[in-house]
Amino acid sequence: MALFSIVLLAVALDYVLGEPGNTYHPLAAFGRWAAWLEQRLLIPEQTPARQKIAGVCALLLALLPCAAALPLLLLTEAWQTLFGIILLYFCIAPRSLQQHAEAVRTVLAAGDLELARSRVAYMVSRETADLDAAGVRRAAIESVLENGADAVFAPIFWFIVAGPCGALLYRFSNTLDAMWGYRNRRYQYFGWAAARLDDVLNWAPARLTAFGYALLGRTGPALRAWKEQAALLESPNAGPVMAAGGAALNLRLGGPAVYHGQLKAKPWFGGEQTAENGDIARAGGLVYRVLGLWLILIAIGGGFA
């Protein structure tokens, strides 16, 4: 039951303490390390092939800190358990996700659209300055559903599969994808390797998350949306998660949005109802219910291990 204890205590720490500030968060330090590498290796004037090679080198160098966790495998079981709890706590962020979403819901309910646009901008990569209230709601809900996979279930999945090094590798890879994985002029080739690695590492966790959303929501419609709508979305992993999650909540999500100054004809997906302010909290509730299910399954699995 050691695995269950580690995951449970990491989730409990996150719930009580929330996400640590950037000053103390290892991911913030990792982000600075990645930015330093980018400054030295990304040369926009190079050919696409050379930029791809530079991106592969940057990715490999950026992930070197994962090796620092290997000597910890030589520690006693008690110290490995303690380290595992702390590291997994740093790798997951369900409470932070809930807090960001609640901040958006609160100001929308108060009628302050300008502040709601500002707060939802912390959660999404689309431009938010011209969003109406409905657009802010959809953006917040989509972020909760997608980041449920990225910032909650995928780190736990890789911790189960490969221990602390697995969780760390995934979280670093996901951070690099968030920094370099854009299909724009600057990162189209340099960020290719980081984006592909994140796609690979997210494949299984994303589909387990989508199935969890379906199982604990409107199961039939969610599974149909996954089958029929996921391929319409650009991301191979966010597609199943958001299509299934939207339909599980019966919320119509998506629609055209502006990214980096360009309007994208993002498709509509999910369910049928227009999102209301309370649906932002419903999305967070779905993530926590699936997290509870995962804890039960991990406990059962540990009992048979």
Task: Explain briefly what this protein structure is.
68% of the residues lie in helices and 4% in strands.
**Contiguous uncertain segments of 5+ residues:** none
The assigned structural class equals mainly alpha
Give the termini separation: 8 Å
Strand/helix succession: HHHHHHHHHHEEEEH
Approximately how much beta-strand content do the residues carry?
under 5%
Could you give the order of strands across the largest sheet? 1-4
Number of helices: 11
| Largest beta-sheet details | 2 strands, antiparallel
What is the count of distinct domains?
Answer: 1
Please estimate the helix content: 55-70%
Rounded to the nearest angstrom, the radius of gyration is: 19 Å
Work out the number of β strands: 4
Shape: globular
What is the mean predicted local confidence, pLDDT? 92
Pfam families: CobD_Cbib (PF03186)
Main location: membrane
Pathway: Cofactor biosynthesis; adenosylcobalamin biosynthesis
GO cellular component, one term: plasma membrane
